Amino acid sequence: MFRWWWLSVCLVLAACSGSDLPEDVPPGSDSGTSIPSPDAGGDAGTDGGLPDAGADGGIPDAGFDAGAQDAGSDGGQGDAGSDGGAQDAGTDGGRDGGSDAGCVRCESPPPPSCYDAKTIVTWFLPGYCGSDGGCQYSSLYESCQYGCSNDACQPCPPQCDGRECGDDGCGGSCGTCDDPQSCGGGGLAGICGPELGCGSWSVGASLQVARAHPAAAMLSDGRLFLAGGLTGSGATRTAEAFNPGTNTWTSQGSIPDGGTTPGGASNSFYSFPGAAQLGTGKVLVTGYADNAYARFDPATATWTPGSGITTRLQPLVLPLANGQALVASGITEGGDRVLLSYTYDDVAAKWNYSTSREGRYRAAGVQLADGRVMVTSGIADDVYGQAARSAELYDPVTNTWSYTGAPRRPHAAAALARLQDGRVLLIGGTSVRGFFTGTAVRSTSVELYDPATGLWRDTGFLNVARSGHTATVLADGRVLVAGGVGADGKVIPWVELYDVETERWTLTAPLSTARTSHVATQLEDGRVLVTSGTSPTGAALASTEVVQPAGFCPAHGCVPESDDALCARQEAGCGTLSVQDACGTTRQVSCGQCSLASSCGGAGIPYRCGAPGGAGWQVETLGTAGGRRPGIVIEANGEPAVAYLWYDVGGGGGFTYEVFLARRHSQGWSAAPIQGGVLSSNVALARTSTGQLRAAATMRVYIYSSSNEVPTLLSWDAGRWRDEVAAPTYPVVNASQLAMGLGPTNEPLVCTIDLVNYFHTAELLCYARDDSGEWRRDRVDAPGSYGGAPSVAVGRDGIPHLAYYDMNKKALIHAVKGDTGWTLETVDASADVGRDASLALDAQGHPHIAYRDATNKDLKYARWTGSAWSLQQVDTADDVGGTPALALDAQGRPHISYEDLTRHNLKYARWSGTAWELTTVDASGVGGANSALTLDASGRAHIAYYGQDLRYARGP
Known about the structure:
Layout: E1 3-7, H1 14-17, E2 113-116, E3 119-129, E4 135-143, E5 148-149, E6 152-153, E7 181-183, E8 192-194, E9 202-203, E10 215-218, E11 224-227, E12 230-231, E13 234-235, E14 238-243, E15 248-254, E16 274-277, E17 283-286, E18 292-297, E19 302-307, E20 316-319, E21 325-328, E22 340-345, E23 350-355, E24 364-367, E25 373-376, E26 391-395, E27 400-404, E28 415-418, E29 424-427, E30 446-450, E31 455-458, E32 470-473, E33 479-482, E34 495-499, E35 504-508, E36 519-522, E37 528-531, E38 544-547, H2 563-569, E39 576-580, E40 586-590, E41 599-600, E42 609-612, E43 618-623, E44 631-634, E45 640-646, E46 657-665, E47 668-678, E48 684-687, E49 693-703, E50 706-717, E51 720-725, E52 735-742, E53 748-754, E54 763-769, E55 775-781, E56 791-794, E57 800-806, E58 811-818, E59 821-828, E60 833-841, E61 847-853, E62 858-864, E63 869-875, E64 880-888, E65 894-900, E66 905-911, E67 916-922, E68 929-935, E69 941-946, E70 950-954
Antiparallel strand pairs: 1-4, 2-3, 3-4, 5-6, 7-8, 9-38, 10-11, 11-14, 12-13, 14-15, 16-17, 17-18, 18-19, 20-21, 21-22, 22-23, 24-25, 25-26, 26-27, 28-29, 29-30, 30-31, 32-33, 33-34, 34-35, 36-37, 37-38, 39-40, 41-42, 42-43, 43-70, 44-45, 45-46, 46-47, 48-49, 49-50, 50-51, 52-53, 53-54, 54-55, ...
């Protein structure tokens, strides 16, 4: 629909002379739609060149003065008043090229312009002279389907985000596929994928019995053997084998009923048996009953029952190079994890036992090239389903278990694959607790283990987060991962290939049937066979599918995203979004709800939980976190980054946490994990002089037969986070709280309270690298076990300072390191003072400390003047001073954030130069504990703290 508007435009000089016109966006009334022309000097005084902007309010002379002198509202004196004394008919009559009484031509309409974000206005010929002597033009208002910007209707935006082929939504194309691929051929809309004959999956012979979680073993005669598993009506004892030569499945009888499992047991404990072929050719099967095992003879298709081994279900069963089989891990029907492991010698008909280091079930294991067995992953918590993080090695020669390097993150329902060079991949799985509660978080992480060093490192991340998947090492060295459960908890068909050289994962032809808890193996003829499993509806599957992977054509790009991923991409923490995923599908996505005292958008940012703060402060809720003190820095863009601990609050406590890093952007926050398996301690965060981030946390590391709770340094390097243990291997340490400072050349100093025991004998230890790059430990003091983390600052001269609470003396201590060691001095011993001390150094290297007076329940501040300590009471109202954080501005003035423990509010103190100014930042009454404070370049305060959940406050 078009609308015609006849608008009066007075173009005194510019239109008549054909010169360029000033540009203006017309408002919505006739009196304001004319295009004003400057009075070419005569009005260049008070009104700045605008027409009659003085006494007559900027209305053009096209009104009552009809081109004559302004004898009306400006008193009959022409423009002698507000325009500096020049008359329109006189003074500017000779200066603007002619009289305002008429025009010669009207041939220069204004250019098109945006009326609003969706409408463009066009001025067009013919023009004509109006009664005031100026040129007037007609205008046309027209809707812009895709919006108006830069004074033009915008073209149709092609919808090719995440697509590489097919219709772009604008009558064009996102591209075409080269043969033998076609658009959507890989099962992903808008993506080039393989056709039949190019690595696509084809239907294979169906199982005789549908089953999930069966025991599987590749027999020496090339057949695939399956036994047990879970059917739709309960656990099955049936067995069958696949013959690649005939492409048929044949029955192999049933596992003898030699244990305590009822014949039709529906308990899922009985759905995870294990199997391994022995050196004699027979197959050992166990885990289908509490205390039973059986041997199957493939030559005669007969079974021999056995019993009397330690009760276990869901075990790990692996063949060994010496012809024996290892039975390890597992769980009893009563829920106890089993430490006792066995090896079975079929020649001697004998079980030998040993004891593993950690109990776990549904573990992942693989035999290494040297004959040892690596065991990792699994579930380490029989109540809440917490994922296991440690790794251990079994040596069949010595029949012993030992710890090896722990993976960077906990994993459950992950997959292990031994590469052809002997290294091991740990792929995906659930990374946090919640396996049984429905809150499991699937991971895209993949870690690479080197048996030569016993260490893990990150390698290429999966395209699709998953657990319950399979990993198969192909003949050409690539690793094929298939199926599983995706990030949204749904069973998926997606298949990926790992290239060892590039360490990259590539999506390829998906399975015909989405499945999890299945079996995948490469047959002797090179085909990959995928069989059994659970379907998206929860049904046990009898279907199989096969592929010849040599000709796999990769499919890149579009992967259906989970709701959580879409919310994260939109940086939304609450509310409902209508958002388009990477496959072009628009969905309504629920991003969660806010807790009490917060509302969605309450902090002024849509889809983020928050609440207005006091005195112009802005308060935002970042989300659930671990409750310990976070770290905060300002990045190069002027926005904060916060490092904090995260855990599943529905998990009922526990010991495994993850370090997350949250970054603030114009639309809100985004957060990502940077380290798993850390302990429940605070997190330190610092920014180097080159802008890189360094974080520190405590972590449990297994060394020989003991576990150390050590400080770990996390560094952003080459596009990923790297971690290194900042502690020598001996003696054993038990780090509880920590702090970190960076020296003038960015070298880290990490200091911890080491809990030797809980009877006030904890030590204060500091860790730094020596000239060779090795970490060295330095003992500072033995201040007692409680009182918070120490605070660390390193001066421009490289001299480190510490402030901390000595519980034995109930005093605030300052320590400084010189050439001969640490010098300790008592700063304040007037009462029980010094808890949670926070230290900063000024430009002169003088220390400033904020701390709590627990006796008088006050916030105090100490400053070294150069010759003595000056002590002040900052806030004495209520019970105040909880977990203070101190920062100094460019003038060296202190700023302190702290908790009002009486009212459970976050408060802020600032020294004005003459007095302390106190402000309540968050008066929600849900807490302001464990605050971390930093100042940006303008001196504005940024605070991360815990008020029922993790929050962020930004100063006015």
